[in-house]
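Subject: Sanity check before I submit

Could someone independently write out the structure tokens for this chain? I want to compare against mine line by line before I put it in a report. The sequence has 61 residues.
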Amino acid sequence: MHRKKINVSTVLAGQRLGIKEVDDGIWLVSFMRYDLGYIDLEQRTLQPIDNPFGTRLSPMS
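---
Independent answer below. Compare away.
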């Protein structure tokens, strides 16, 4: 991003990530439909969102 390297995860290597600026220098990182965290370009850090996948309940049969 802007010629700065930011390591998000080796698990996501080669995958496309969505990024969207939400504040000056703060970017939301998403994978598929899940928001993963926020990148601070000044600090070059990623602050993860607690459990981006949330809880899933199985339907009752």
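---
OP: Matches mine. For the report I'm noting this point. Residues 18-48 form one domain.
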